[in-house]
């Protein structure tokens, strides 16, 4: 009998379903995500909790999840029982937050099949339920997470008042407890120097723009996460409609900027894209930040049909596997930053069909 | 009957023989050149001359050259009768100086078969005889130019006194009238930041270090021209021996620097070389300066046997044909700087086997 795989190692075998390039608007929208903050009525919130209470929350949520059909094939991962590289790996997969990685004690994550749904346990709230979809698909993500929320509510008693809605550790999440976010690739708006104006407008409309890994991280490689700020006083569907309306405008601006690049600066654009391709096929050492920049340039080339040698699926895989913990998991051992840069370059050369 | 080719167009068909990569020390020394300054005894020197006298010098030298066996297949090119692009083309081939190009009236150049020997007429001196060889081969260049000088002296009476030797327009050339120079590729000394120390030492030993196109031009792409300063008071063979002795030391330093790069920084070195290769195979627009940098990196890769996809012959051809006038001659029409950068990128992609 073969030894059963560690659940993290099993994840390594494939790309997350939300990176499958199967959703709407794949040329601009990488993925859509909805997260619900929930707390158990009978246990103190994170700010006032203790070890014993946290341990109980973990067990109660674990038992509750065991009754959910949607989590039937899910893995329960105790953050304290896995290695630091595995924890980092989960951050890179957007399955846990950086805070969750940094404080693993009495914290867990439940990972659904294909990573489409997951639940962080004892993060800022007792439960942070998450649903991810490929492309621009907040509605599907909402349908899925709403169903999972209902299933969990059958066994778990969530803190809720008719006046305030769901109660959360931080008051900014109270109400629906919902945060919807979308990962966008906006290279043309960056090249045409229109991005700051767009992000400024988004903020005034009640949305937030962040880097790849959420709050406090910078946008790299022209990838941006846009999410709602308001969670209170509206229905979830209204909030989603509002985000989608604004996103559609951002997408239109990006499309116009791409058209403008093509008519005004085609030569420079092609040069940039093909140089990125040439570097990726030949470099012997590539940093994380450079990899994102190169992937961004090549993705733009593929999206604009200026390059037919590659597809977005390969780029999405690289997007995921070029990250530090992914590289170390692939290698099967810890690597220094310098070794990672070499391993990253090697992986990129292999995946884009050169050696 | 086909129309006879313009002599400049004939040159375009092939690479100069001195770029054939056939001489000694090809991994560090591109080419060796000897130039002799000669003046006709009976005509005023350039500083005191007039149009009529210059025209007579042109005719006298032309007739004299017609008697030389070595110049039997040579072309006499009146600088004033060719286009500006053709004049620039001759500079790029190292057949005429920039000054000769800029003031074409009553100036000419005699170009021997394969460009191994040539004679500028009415440059700073009435004759500037030149001999070029591939690799480190000043002795062959000397044998050739000495023979040509003798042949020309059979019909032309050169200004010479037993005390001062050959008289020249500028006193710094008086004596032998000889300048020997060698074009070196010293990328490892540049990368290891030892180049300034080496050039400083060279200068103290009576040699001069310059850029690709002689006086007043900067070294680009790690290519340097090293030549003697002293022309008076010594035999030509002594001068050449002295340069060769110093050059051998420079070459040894470059070899040591390459070894050091390989043992200390192999990963970065390979990265640099392969990136250059990737960019050359894919870029859509490349400037002159960048082309030299890329060619320098790839040449180093070939020389150090880190790259087997290319040979020095191809690199030498690109070295020549990436220059502005060469590109325009290839295209058959004048090109704006932006168009040249695109044409250059296209040529590079073609020559290194990618499209």
Question: In a few lines, what is going on in this structure?
Answer:
The structure is a homodimer of 355-residue chains. Chain A is α+β, with helices and mostly antiparallel strands and 355 residues long.
Topology:
The structure is a homodimer of 355-residue chains.
Chain A: H1 7-12, E1 29-38, H2 51-66, E2 75-78, H3 84-92, H4 98-102, E3 108-111, E4 117-121, E5 127-134, H5 138-155, E6 160-161, E7 165-166, E8 178-185, H6 187-191, H7 195-204, E9 207-210, E10 223-228, H8 236-280, H9 288-303, H10 312-321, H11 324-331, H12 337-351
Antiparallel strand pairs in A: 1-5, 1-8, 2-3, 3-4, 4-5, 6-7, 8-10, 9-10
Helix pairs in contact in A: 3-11, 8-9, 9-10, 11-12
Please explain how this structure is put together.
The structure is a homodimer of 355-residue chains. By secondary structure, the first copy, chain A, is of the alpha+beta class. Chain A has two domains: 7-258, Glutamine synthetase/guanido kinase, catalytic domain (Creatine Kinase, Chain A, domain 2); 265-351, no CATH class. Chain A is built from twelve helices and ten strands. Chain A has an eight-stranded antiparallel beta sheet, with helices on one face. In chain A, helix 8 crosses helix 9 and helix 9 packs antiparallel against helix 10. Chain A binds chain B through residues 267-268, 270-271, 274-275, 277-285, 338, 342, 345, and chain B through 267-268, 270-271, 274-275, 277-285, 338, 342, 345.
Index terms:
46% helix; homodimer; alpha+beta; eight-stranded antiparallel β-sheet; two-stranded antiparallel sheet; 2 domains; Creatine Kinase, Chain A, domain 2; 355 residues
């Amino acid at each position: 009998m073969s030894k059963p795989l560690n659940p993290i190692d099993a994840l390594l075998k494939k790309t997350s379903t939300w990176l499958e390039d199967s959703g709407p608007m794949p040329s601009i929208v990488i993925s859509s995500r909805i997260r619900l903050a929930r707390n158990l009525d009978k246990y103190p919130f994170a700010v006032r909790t203790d070890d014993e209470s946290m341990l109980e929350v973990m067990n109660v949520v674990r038992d509750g999840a065991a009754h959910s059909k949607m989590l039937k094939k899910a893995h329960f991962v105790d953050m304290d029982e896995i290695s630091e590289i595995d924890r980092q790996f989960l951050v890179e997969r957007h399955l846990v937050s950086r805070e969750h990685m940094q404080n693993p004690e009495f914290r867990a994550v439940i990972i659904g099949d294909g990573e489409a749904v997951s639940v962080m346990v004892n993060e800022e709230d007792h439960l942070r339920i998450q649903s991810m979809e490929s492309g621009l698909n907040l509605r599907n993500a909402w349908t899925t997470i709403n169903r999972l929320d209902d299933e969990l509510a059958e066994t778990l008693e969530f803190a809720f008042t008719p006046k305030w809605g769901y109660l959360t550790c931080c008051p900014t999440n109270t109400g629906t407890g919902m945060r919807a976010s979308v990962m966008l690739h906006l290279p043309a708006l960056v090249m045409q120097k229109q991005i700051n104006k767009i992000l400024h407008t988004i903020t005034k409309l009640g949305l937030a723009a962040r880097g790849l890994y959420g709050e406090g991280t910078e946008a790299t490689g022209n990838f941006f996460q846009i999410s709602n700020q308001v969670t209170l006083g509206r229905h979830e569907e209204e909030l989603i409609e509002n985000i989608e309306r604004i996103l559609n405008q951002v997408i239109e601006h990006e499309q116009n900027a791409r058209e403008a690049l093509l008519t005004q600066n085609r030569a420079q654009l092609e040069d940039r894209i093909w140089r990125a391709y040439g570097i990726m096929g030949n470099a012997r050492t590539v940093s994380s930040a450079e990899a994102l920049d190169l992937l961004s340039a090549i993705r733009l080339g593929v999206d604009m049909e200026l390059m037919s040698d590659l597809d977005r699926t390969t780029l999405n895989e690289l997007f995921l596997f070029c990250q530090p913990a992914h590289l170390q998991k692939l290698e099967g051992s810890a690597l220094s930053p310098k070794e990672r840069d070499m391993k990253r370059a090697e992986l990129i050369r292999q995946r884009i069909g050169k050696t």
